[in-house]
Design goal:
42% of the residues lie in helices and 18% in strands. The chain has 290 residues and is of the alpha/beta class. Strand 7, helix 11 and strand 8 form a beta-alpha-beta unit. GO terms for molecular function: protein-glutamate O-methyltransferase activity.
C-alpha cells in the first residue's frame, strides 16, 4: 500500500463513516482490507483503491463495512447491563408508569449481541414488566452485520463469550454447531441501516440510548455533533450509555454524568454546541486503535 493509497483511504473512510485514522494506522487497514482484496479477486489494496477511484460503489461499500465492523459479544463489559437493570429500569418504571412503554436505541448494534442482551435483561425482569411495551431499535452502518443480527444465529464460540449458560439454555435453540435466539426475543428487536453521520431524527425519541464503542473512532468535531443530535433524540429524563473509553466530559454540556455510574449520562437541558463552539474547544485526540 503506497502512502498515496493510504491517504485516499483515510479520506474516504472519514467522509463515509466518520472513522478518523491517524497517520500510523496502515497496519489496521492492511489487516482488514487484504482479506477483502482476496475475496474481490484483486491483487491487493492498491487495486481496490483503483477500482474505487474508477467508480466502483460496491467495492467502496465493502471497504467501509470491512473497516467499521466492530467486535462485540453478549453482555459486553457487564457494567452497562448492571446499570440498565439496577438504575435505568427502576427509574423509568416509575417515570413511565402512566404510559407503560419504553423505547431503546442501540446505535451501533453490530451483529446483535447488545440488543439481544438488553432483550434478555428485560425478559429476566419477569412479572415486574407485565403490561409494559418495549421497543428496541438496533441500527448499524453495515447491512451485512444487520442481516446476521436479524437471523439471531451464532456460533458456539460467540455464545460462549459473555452469555451465562442458564440464558443460553433458556433463550436459544441449538442446531448442529449453531445456536439461534428464540423467535420471541428476535421479535423484540427492530433493525435499521443507519449512518450516525447522517440525520437520524426520523427514528423519533428514546428513553434509553446505548451508543457504545463507536464514538472513539470519530474526531472531536464529529463527536460533538453526534452528541448534540443524540440529545435531541432523547427524552428529557432519558439515559445515554457510552463505552468504557468514551465520555462527554470536555466535549459537550448537553449531557451530564450520572453520579457514581461509569459510562452513564443524562440530558442536562443545555443547548447543543454550535460549530463555532466546537471550533473554540481544545482539541482532544481521537482514539483510533481497536
Amino acid at each position: 500500500m503506497t502512502p498515496t493509497d493510504y491517504e485516499y483511504l483515510r479520506k474516504l473512510l472519514k467522509d463515509h463513516s466518520g472513522l478518523d485514522l491517524s497517520a500510523d494506522k496502515q497496519y489496521l487497514i492492511e489487516s482488514r482490507l487484504l482479506p477483502l482484496s482476496r475475496k474481490c479477486g484483486v491483487s491487493g489494496i492498491g487495486e481496490l483503491v483503483q477500482k474505487m477511484k474508477g467508480g466502483s460503489s460496491s467495492i467502496t461499500v465493502q471497504v467501509v463495512e470491512a473497516m467499521t465492523t466492530n467486535e462485540t459479544f453478549f453482555f459486553r463489559d457487564k457494567v452497562p447491563f448492571e446499570h440498565f437493570r439496577d438504575t435505568i429500569m427502576p427509574e423509568l418504571l416509575k417515570a413511565r408508569a402512566g404510559r407503560k412503554s419504553i423505547r431503546i436505541w442501540c446505535a451501533a448494534g453490530s451483529t446483535g449481541q447488545e440488543p439481544y442482551s438488553l432483550a434478555m435483561s428485560l425478559k429476566e425482569m419477569g412479572a415486574a414488566l407485565a403490561g409494559w411495551r418495549f421497543e428496541i431499535i438496533a441500527t448499524d452502518l453495515s447491512q451485512e452485520v444487520l442481516e446476521k443480527s436479524k437471523s439471531g444465529i451464532y456460533s458456539q464460540f460467540e455464545v460462549q463469550r459473555g452469555l451465562p449458560i442458564q440464558l443460553l439454555v433458556k433463550y436459544f435453540k441449538q442446531n448442529g454447531e449453531l445456536w439461534q435466539i428464540s423467535p420471541e426475543l428476535r421479535g423484540m428487536v427492530q433493525h435499521r441501516q443507519l449512518n450516525l453521520l447522517h440525520d437520524f431524527s426520523q427514528l423519533g425519541t428514546f428513553d434509553v440510548i446505548f451508543c457504545r464503542n463507536v464514538l472513539i473512532y470519530f474526531d472531536q468535531e464529529t463527536k460533538i455533533n453526534i452528541f448534540g443530535r443524540l440529545a435531541k433524540a432523547m427524552e428529557g429524563d432519558g439515559f445515554l450509555v457510552l463505552g468504557a473509553a468514551e465520555t462527554v466530559v470536555g466535549l459537550t454540556d448537553v449531557f451530564k454524568p450520572f453520579p457514581d455510574k461509569r459510562g452513564l449520562y443524562r440530558p442536562s437541558g443545555a443547548r447543543a454546541a454550535s460549530p463555532q463552539d466546537a471550533a473554540a474547544m481544545p482539541k482532544i485526540a481521537a482514539i483510533t486503535g481497536r
